[in-house]
Amino acid sequence: MGSRVRVWLNRTYAENVFFMDQLRSNPQRRPVEIHATHGDADSPILAAADTAAMEPEGLSRAAYVEYALDQCARHEIDVFVPVLHQTSIVAHRAEFAAQGTALLAPPSEAVAVFHDKVTAYQALQAVGVPVPPWWRVRTEEELLVAVETLEAAGHKACFKPAAGAGGVGFRVITRAPFSLNHLNGFPSSYVPLSLVQDALRGAGKPVDWLVMPLLAEPEVSVDCLTGPDGRVRMAVGRTKNGRRRGFTLNPSWIEPARRLAEAFGLHYLTNIQFRMFGDEPVLMDVNTRPAGGLHQLALCGINAPWAAVQLAIGEETGEIVPAHLGQDYAVVTGPRPVRPVTLPQQRAETLPATPGVEPVMAPVAEPATASATESPLPSAITPTVSPIVAPATTPVTAPAATPAIASGISPAAAAAGAGATAAVAPA
Fold first, then answer.
1. Lowest mean pLDDT among 259-268, 335-344, 400-409
2. What is the pTM of this model?
3. Which tens digit of pLDDT belongs to each residue from 145-203?
4. In which order are the strands placed within the sheet that holds 79-81?
5. CB 211 within 8 Å of CB 158
6. 317 contacts: CB under 8 Å, gap ≥ 6
């Protein structure tokens, strides 16, 4: 057992509670203390940490860097995993290093390339990584040209912001007029072209979208771990075909991902996503951060978060190859703790008197003794996403229905008891 390692996760997605679990369950049994900050007091990230703080709102990017430097100094952070304002933070890597903090993120040059999808696609084409046909669109006229060109070739058109992550703003264009069909069932990503045109005309300013063909499944997300020396230590693909998830080491996906990670210096944990364009795997997106589903590699016997921290603190991991590929699985939700809250004084409601019945007033919550901004934690419960294993008898490239078997609840959640819940989406 070695010395303690202090890790900070700033504002991040809720599924990273599993990232934190894996850091603590590292095979070397190194003591790990986790600091977390967030803008949402009900994020389970805060409850999962050893210490936590609410992030100040309204900071400029420059002010946020100063805030981050102060947090690292105050909490003696060894490794900082930046998600919010990653681009600005990595530009100050030397300042963090000067006070003893390693950034678990690629160099600023690599982050800048992949922050903008158009810049990324141009760079990828230059090194021979296949990408789908694409158009950068700012006006209604440019949108129509792209959509009509794709439709003439037999493709459905879709668009998403040129800068963004997590599928935010992704839409598929349809020629079907808006009708009750769009209002029945669950919300859909499909949107009539006429409504998109109306929105563009009413916006009064240009947009910045990337238009491309709707790509087919399977979707393969290759989780890469690359050392600061530029050498890839791990590249494992996670497949998604409908509800079915699985793993792959197929060179069609793995080799382009390794080549890309080494060519662009995508140090530490990154996620490179592919889909099919006809019969050819093409790159869809590159995330310069750990994927929300990274913890699922545990089904292959891999603790990727801890391996990344080891590299960040100067410890060599060697090549990380799964001893086996975990069987196919599905993803379901399960509860995780959230921090207790102090409710404001509740107004007493005046109820109509009932003969012979004493009125009963709702109890008022006692003020919490812990600081509202920074504290060691535990508490109520919020669902998060856990992989559940399903028998696999079908290759991952063929869709097949597999029932979920059971949902696991972590010991921390079970110990926390019942409480408030909030949904957590898979990433």
1. 400-409
2. 0.81
3. 999 999 999 999 999 998 877 678 999 999 998 888 878 888 889 999 999 999 999 99
4. 102-103, 79-81, 5-9, 32-38, 51-54, 374-375
5. yes
6. 225, 227, 233, 307, 310, 311
Helix (H) or strand (E) holding 32: strand 32-38
Q: What's 16's DSSP letter? A: G
Q: Which H, E and C letters describe 199-246, residue by residue?
A: HHHHHCCCCCEEEEECCEEEEEEEEEEECCCCCEEEEEEEEEECCEEE
Residues in the chain: 427
> Closest Cα partner for 149 from 171, 159, 168, 134?
134
What are φ and ψ of residue 291, in 5° steps?
Answer: -75, 150
Distances (CA, A) of 138 to 41, 122, 150, 208, 387: 37, 18, 17, 5, 39
* Close Cβ partners of 284 (under 8 Å, ≥ 6 residues apart): 132, 215, 219, 273, 274, 275
Give dist(CA 414, CA 419) in Å, integer: 11
Q: At what angle do helices 304-312 and 17-24 cross, to 10 degrees?
A: 70
DSSP class of residue 162 equals S
Please list the residues that pair with 36 across neighbouring strands: 9, 52
The residues pairing with 246 across neighbouring beta strands, listed in sequence order, are: 239
- Give the Cβ contact number of residue 121 at 10 Å: 22
Position 10, amino acid:
N
Q: Which amino acid is at 366?
A: E
Residue 328 near residue 396 (C-beta atoms within 8 A)? yes
- From first CA to last CA, the distance across the chain in angstroms is 33
CA-based R_g, the chain, Å? 24
Contact 382, 335 (CB under 8 A): yes
Q: Pick from 122, 127, 387, 372: which is nearest to 244 by CA?
A: 387
CB atoms within 10 A of CB 54: 17
In the beta sheet, which residues pair with residue 236?
Answer: 223
Q: CB of 58 within 8 A of CB of 30?
A: no
Model pLDDT for residues 147-157, shown as the tens digit of each residue: 999 999 999 99
Residue 121 near residue 276, CB atoms below 8 Å: no
CB 125 within 8 A of CB 172: no
DSSP state of 416: H
